[in-house]
Amino acid sequence: MTAVLPQGELTIARMCALTGVSRAGYYRHWAAAAPRQEETGVRDAIQRLALAHPHYGYRRIAAQLRREGLAVNHKRVLRLMREDNLLCLRKRAFVPMTTDSRHGWRVVPNLARGMVPTGLDQLWVADITYIRLQEEFAFLAIVLDAFSRRVIGWALDTHLQASLAIAALSMALAARRPAPGRVIHHSDRGVQYACGDYTALLAAHDIQPSMSRIGNPYDNAKAESFMKTLKQEEVDGRNYRDAHQAREMIGSFIEEVYNRQRLHSALAYQSPAEFEANLPWQGGAKTTASRSLATALWGARSRAACSAEPHQQPGPQPAVSQTPATTIATCS
Known about the structure:
Blueprint: H1 12-19, H2 23-52, H3 58-67, H4 74-83, E1 123-132, E2 137-145, E3 151-157, H5 162-176, E4 184-187, H6 191-194, H7 196-204, E5 208-211, H8 221-235, H9 243-258, H10 272-277, H11 288-308
Parallel strand pairs: 1-4, 4-5
Antiparallel strand pairs: 1-2, 2-3
């Protein structure tokens, strides 16, 4: 009596003998059919992701495919996307002025330059951008946590008054409730951020203000990067009827797509919400891989900041403004 082997334990030679097919014939058929089937599956997955995320480039598509269990590299994804004409959308080049720094309010020093945050709620960055509507412009103010890249406060309206930026900051304060003296708030020199009402709200929560240098967008690069992503992946190609519709659609993009779904290259291709959930000091059981990833990211950011610092010459150094010890990574 022949023993019955569990499914999957029959050898190729045994199955060929049972079906009356030569092994050479089987391998010829496999070499012709299997790669085509695998290629079709990869193309189908790429097309599905490209339709779901029309602004994703080939690197993010490749990262998402690997998260879904497909063994592909970015070069192959780029080739297949070129062959299938799956090109991501680009933004239009029109940028009206949203910053008015010609005012009499106090301009504070730049405390964020060279700073490497090592945790949440150490450095918040804020900015304002325009949104084109059918018959007018609206303006979006945001507050973003520089460590996790998460948008923690935002507001949209048809004016550029200080109340717009205050509404975004109030949302961030309600969502995070930071400890007094812990946060540095960085922005440009616009009147919305320098006015008395805004600085009073910062002072009431013991938040240190910081402002960029004149005409230097690199000082607020993380906020500028978010605005670029917002324009490319949500605003461009839309035709918002009015501010109400823009507020609903942009709010949905920020809360559901950007914060919870979009993969960020700076976060090892995780979403901001996923990155925050995987931080080792957050509640719940965390994997060793998550802890190692967070540690590696902190180390990489610290090394980058250290390498960017100019070498100091011997002799007396000018005094610098003090910031909380917990907000600056130490270079060793």
